[in-house]
Specification:
With about 325 residues, this protein is an alpha/beta fold. Helices cover about 30% and strands about 20% of the residues. The mean pLDDT is about 95.
């Protein structure tokens, strides 16, 4: 695969053409207010696991609509006082999986809260959180579920779950609520950017090759899934492009980035056709906080930096937490 997007010097100044809805803040304010009318009901049940270095809790909390959402909270076995905490969101199609697959951050001395992804987790990872809300006709996948109206769009529910996940993590006595960071890769990176725009007091965010950014460009520059789901939907539902773009504008990482108030560490891969680098740079260039950096992996596809980016996160996050 060759480089296919803008040259790097143009990426560093690229700006999205995505139009922000006039009622963007009102929409999300109302959405979160409605979610908070349900008691958070965060429950942390000790989970037996034959590991000596960590302790794990099976988590349930109320997300969008009060629906139960699952997660794992993993802490170092020696922890007896509040810790800096990483809240992690999962990539497209995946779920929280098994707790022994999430040992990195607890091994580094952090509390680690990983959120399950409603309705997904049947492509890889496995999970335990259904999505009880249906939608109008949609192309298989999640990108067009409810795309006829922002009130019904799938990612309204998922982004709300993610904000509530931060609130659930902060409710645990081993979490230092003033030292919480959000991170994730691909879809998890897109969710991270949304949370960074909706939660005003995070200590840091670290979206890795993020998805769900700059929809107008993403829909036309790549034919790779998941963005292609939108094109396949519009190929059948002719004449609904404007309507779809309006809905997607409420969920575009570019607009959440404009509200980002925390230091940020992004990454992009220049051969990434799943989350094209211009769409990542669109969100990075819009990120409002002055402390931000982006790691660029020249000859990588959607795997991005992989363990190298994790190593960079391990170096970068402690100074912000």
């Amino acid at each position: 695969m060759a480089l296919f997007d803008l040259p790097l010097d143009e990426l560093r100044t690229y700006r999205s053409s995505s139009t922000e809805p006039e009622d963007f803040d009102a929409f999300w304010g109302k959405t979160l207010q409605e979610a908070r009318e349900h008691d958070l009901s965060a429950r942390f049940v000790p989970f037996e696991i034959p590991l000596k270095t960590v302790a794990v809790h099976d988590v349930t909390f109320a997300g969008f609509g009060g629906h139960p959402v699952k997660g794992w909270l993993t802490v170092p076995a020696w922890a007896n006082s509040p810790l800096p905490t990483v809240v992690e969101f999962i990539g497209y199609g995946g779920g929280r999986g098994l707790p022994h697959t999430h040992l990195l951050w607890a091994s580094a001395g952090f509390a680690h809260f990983v959120m399950d992804t409603r309705g997904q987790a049947s492509t890889w990872g496995g999970g335990d959180t259904p999505d009880p809300v249906g939608s109008a006709p949609a192309f298989p996948g999640f990108m067009t579920r409810g795309i006829e109206d922002p009130e019904n769009y799938y990612y309204r529910r998922l982004f709300t779950d993610a904000v509530r996940a931060v609130e659930a993590a902060r409710s645990h006595p081993l979490v230092d609520s003033a030292r919480v960071a959000a991170l994730g890769g691909s879809q998890g990176g897109g969710i991270t950017i949304a949370v960074g725009g909706l939660v005003p007091d995070l200590a840091a965010i670290a979206p890795d090759v993020p998805f769900l950014c700059d929809f107008p460009r993403a829909m036309t520059i790549t034919d790779r899934a998941p963005y292609r789901e939108i094109g396949n939907y519009l190929k059948t539902h002719r004449g609904r492009t404007e309507q779809a773009l309006r809905t997607l504008s409420y969920f575009d990482g570019v607009h959440f980035a404009a509200r980002g108030r925390a230091p940020a560490l992004f990454s992009a891969a220049l051969e990434d056709q799943t989350c094209p680098p211009s769409t990542v740079f669109a969100a990075f260039n819009a990120w409002a906080h002055e402390e931000k950096q982006i790691e660029v992996y020249d000859f990588n596809d959607h795997e991005g930096g992989g363990p190298y980016q994790q190593a960079e996160q391990l170096r970068w996050l402690p100074a912000r937490l």
